[in-house]
Amino acid sequence: MQVDELLKPFPIKEFHPFPRALLGPGAHEMIGPEALKLGFRRTLVMTSGLRGSDIVHKITESLKYHGLEVVVYDKVESNPKDYNVMDAVKLYQEHKCDSFVSIGGGSSHDACKGARISLAHDGRNINDFEGFNKSENQKNPPHIAVSTTAGTGSETSWAYVITDTTTDPDNPHKYVAFDDASVATLAVDDPVLYYDCPVDYTAQCGFDVLAHASEPYVARLNFEPSMGNALYATKLVAEHLRTAAWNPQDLSGRQGMMYAQYIAAQAFNSGGLGIIHSISHAVSAFYDTHHGLNNAIALPRVWAFNLPVAYRRYADLAEMMGVDTSGMTVVQAADAAVAAAIRLLRDVGIPERFTDIRQDTYSKNRLGQGPTKFYQRASVIKGDDGDIDRVTHHVLGDACTPGNAKECTFETVRPVVDHCFNGDLDDLIS
Ligand SMILES: [Fe+2]
């Protein structure tokens, strides 16, 4: 019997693995001993550098103290590019490394996952592995993923996201690859390493968590084992993101958001995502803007777009967002979820439209500074018809789109994209 024949009567869903994890204040002290236990001898540290903090220095020195040889690749870019992955592969091969430690947010972890996949296939270009479970060889180098942000969840997920700059330099393509072989060996989520994260970046990453929590809760996949994590992660974001952003040395906020990151990623790992992520990937592809920032701008619009097919689920999310829904109809409660998301976005100071993002206003903004001619020219987000069309086309080709709660066509998604660029959030509040 063919698989698709089996799927009709028995809609089989798949649970994807998580790595072992160390969580909580002080967990980073265990990186050296854990690396030794895993048999690391010469490890490649992959990071963006985290300049302005001493985290990379502290961890590399600790690894050396435990007797490891350390090689550092610290040029991972935000929205990691294919050449970041391939440069790291080359460095790994040149130094005959046997393992990886990634330190940072999603970019460092994702580039590292890509490098491991490439190395398992004799250094083949990472862009060959776009899609689902493309690894032919499941064995790749061991990897400790150390988080310094609370957003990505890449330390525990089977996803990695890469920008392909090779196919058409004037039309970059950002894709998400899902691969069980990419899962790290050990995840480390230590809120102490998150204290140095700036306010704006904390806020933006927090909305990545909210997207990871809410998209599987309403996704077509309807993966029941994800629902508890999705709801609880939403509650943690609502309770802790403001504190994490505005009181950065308060452990409760930092720790709450790190747990939210961890369990939200476990929700989407098997529960799927939706077009918050597809819009975010598309805008990053063309403007190199930050993933969490893009998610934050897209989230209220996509929640409003999806409401008619999932009122009950959005009413549940409203409750988790802290709305007192007693006395409300399900539809009123679902509407209140959108209002609560907009309130949170405004409370943590996130710009409300893509056209509000300027070259010099946000710490992770690389408008006009990117490494290729394309990015150098993309210094202003125009939000014109051309922008909206190409982003909409990119959205429809994204691996996250089929999971979206509501069916997506060019005609239905284009107005959502247009609103992300040019619309007023107050339009969404009844
Ligand atoms: Fe994400």
From TrEMBL:
Residues 20-191 form the Alcohol dehydrogenase iron-type/glycerol dehydrogenase GldA domain. InterPro entries: ADH_Fe/GldA, ADH_Fe_C, Alcohol_dehydrogenase_Fe, NDMA_methanol_DH. The keyword Cytoplasm does not apply. GO terms for molecular function: alcohol dehydrogenase (NAD+) activity; metal ion binding. Its cofactor is Mg(2+); Zn(2+); NADPH. Residues 202-361 form the Fe-containing alcohol dehydrogenase-like C-terminal domain. It comes from the Bacteria. Its EC number is 1.1.99.37. The keyword Oxidoreductase applies. Transmembrane segments: none annotated. One of its GO terms (biological process) is methanol oxidation. Belongs to the iron-containing alcohol dehydrogenase family. PANTHER family: ALCOHOL DEHYDROGENASE, ALCOHOL DEHYDROGENASE 4. Homodecamer. NCBIfam families: NDMA_methanol (TIGR04266). This is Methanol:N,N-dimethyl-4-nitrosoaniline oxidoreductase. It comes from Amycolatopsis sacchari. The lineage of its organism: Bacteria, Bacillati, Actinomycetota, Actinomycetes, Pseudonocardiales.
